[in-house]
UniProtKB/TrEMBL annotation:
Segments traversing the membrane: 248-268
Keywords: Membrane, Signal, Transmembrane, Transmembrane helix
Domain of life: Bacteria
Annotated signal sequence range: 1-23
Protein name listed in UniProt: Uncharacterized protein
Length: 290
């Protein structure tokens, strides 16, 4: 019994010593951080003494982790207030502040909607909000998780274009938005640029289906959207042109055959044309009977 108690006591003492040592280290880092903040931001940024600030930093680090130290060094004492306001999202906010500094404060930590998106979609959403400043938030609210991946894959210009398509309703007009966003996620700016240039043709259902079936071929230029649309458009035009020509031929033939005087006049004035028209009329008649 005594040896077992001794072992437990030894373990307890070791844990206490380790905890105390860690607390001492954290207190030292907190003090150094407070002094660094004073030098970097000046007395105006600190409404309290360095010792008081150091205690707040150490307390926050004990609750949220070591990201507190770097976050405070990057954005100042305000990082502590932002962490408190973030509630359960505090560790994520501090991690973002330590990585992105003021950009994380402006585009995520101080925006309730952005914090909600951070809660829903995780750090990836926050990275997108910072990358596409001011543009990503409404896109993510409207399109959700697929938009996170799409915006992650494109540069700022692609982000602006996607935001414009979403806001104008053109993206919805094209249809099958999640699938389009998946294509952008896989192919990045190349896909976004293609969709931007061809938003009109892609609004045609058959064209969109062809594109989504094999987007790589259209993006790299192997296939052309104009061919897909043109085949459907050219055929009716050709048929209409053929019908118009046919009507013209029959009208002239009727004039030639039905009005003898006109036929004789045409034969005298232009025998070659009269012969061609007569030949066309005979050919049309044979085809009609067959």
């Amino acid at each position: 019994m005594i040896p077992r108690f001794a072992r437990l006591l030894t373990i307890g003492i070791c844990l206490f010593a380790a905890t105390s040592a860690r607390a001492d280290v954290a207190s030292k880092i907190a003090q150094e951080t407070a002094e660094f903040v004073l030098k970097k931001f000046g007395k105006k940024a600190i409404t309290e003494g360095t010792e008081s600030l150091a205690k707040r930093i150490a307390s926050s680090a004990a609750r949220h982790g070591d990201d507190v130290f770097k976050a405070v060094r990057r954005v100042g004492p305000g990082a502590l207030s932002l962490a408190d306001d973030a509630g359960e999202q505090a560790p994520k906010v501090l991690r973002l502040l330590s990585k992105h500094g003021d950009d994380a404060a402006v585009w995520v930590a101080r925006r309730p909607k952005a914090l909600k998106l951070l809660s829903q979609h995780g750090d990836e959403a926050a990275e997108v909000l910072i990358k596409h400043k001011g543009l990503a938030e409404p896109v993510l609210e409207k399109l959700g998780a697929p938009a996170v991946n799409a915006l992650s894959a494109v540069a700022p210009q692609g982000g602006r274009r996607l935001a414009m398509l979403a806001e104008s309703g053109e993206l919805a007009a094209i249809g099958r938005t999640p699938e389009l966003l998946e294509v952008i996620s896989r192919h990045g700016d190349a896909a976004m640029n293609f969709i931007w240039r061809n938003k009109g043709p892609l609004a045609v259902g058959t064209t969109l289906t062809a594109f989504l079936a094999k987007p790589e071929a259209f993006i790299d230029g192997t296939n052309q959207l104009i061919g897909t649309v043109g085949e459907n458009a050219v055929k009716p035009i050709a048929e209409a042109a053929g019908t118009a020509i046919s009507c013209l031929v029959w009208a002239v033939v009727a004039l030639v055959v039905g009005v003898p005087a006109a036929g004789i006049y045409l034969a005298v004035r232009n025998p070659k044309l009269a012969a061609e028209l007569t030949k066309a009329a005979v050919s049309r008649g044979v085809n009609a009977r067959s």
